[in-house]
Specification:
The protein has 11 helices and 16 strands. It is of the alpha/beta class and 323 residues long. The protein has one domain: 3-Layer(aba) Sandwich (Rossmann fold), CATH 3.40.50. The protein has a 9-stranded mixed sheet with strand order 3-2-4-5-1-9-10-14-15. Strand 7, helix 11 and strand 8 form a beta-alpha-beta unit. The radius of gyration is 18 Å and the shape is globular. The termini are far apart.
Length: 323
Amino acid sequence: MSELPVSRAAARATSSWLVAAAGLVAAVGAAAVVAPLAAQVSGPVGGPVAAQAGATAPPRVGPATGSVVAVGGRMASPEIFRRFIALAGGPDAELVVIPTAMGEGDYDDSYGAVQALRSYGARSVTVLHTLDPALADTDAFVEPLRSAGGVFFTGGRQWRLVDAYGGTRTERELRRVLERGGVIGGNSAGATILGSFLVRGDTSGNDVVMGDHQRGFGYLRDVAIDQHVLRRNRQHDLVEVVEAHPELLGIGIDEDTAIVVRGDFFEVIGSSYVTIVDRGAVTGRDGKFYLLAPGDGFHLDTRVAARPSRTDGPVPNVTRSPR
């Protein structure tokens, strides 16, 4: 888990070149802005915390309590690790790492994600893993989740998480982590499982975008999450998903980049970009997606993107259109 050999400025320059060269500045997502992020951020978490505190209606898309952190792969930025640990309750919080997507038989405390979290100050990290849904449905297996402030799914194949934990006590206890105000996060395949639609969930290979497993754990409702999008030239793949399922919001997250979700708002952190695919908006003449940079935010309920600035203003080149 070494640092990416690129600064934020370099990442933006690289992505800008990709946009110019391949016509990537495109969108089917929201774009008017209600307020600059600087006016909405409250405390270390980010996002419209004060607005959420006074809200009466529950979130339509994100968690009613707790936080979700989805990372697009090759997680390296200290900011992402530290944010996850802080949302879990700080260094003394009990964390659970679930490496099941990798498909190996056994894991211990030497597993890389465990060591990485400890290197950023986490003092209590437990590995929880099985490929047997019968075991995952027992009280003894889920015991570490009952006191966890944070749970993190690592990468691999997301369908393994569904096969092992879907419909079991484990899946129910995972949701209770959010209900207690904790955080659930994931990297690569572990990010995709957080949405309601499971992208690349086919058992034959991850090149099949809509495969034989299509149900994620749904911590973000009506959302399809893809990962490694720019690094692996996947920026167009979510278009297929959203065209087949127009109700979905497609969120593509590049490597070493994360969205931090509280309620119906997320903030982009890390070193690269997030793509938004939304049938309800366009950019340019016929664009299919648009990009959010680190520091940008997004309102999941209204599908409106926002960029920090000294004055109110929209994310450039994105306008609403009839669905």
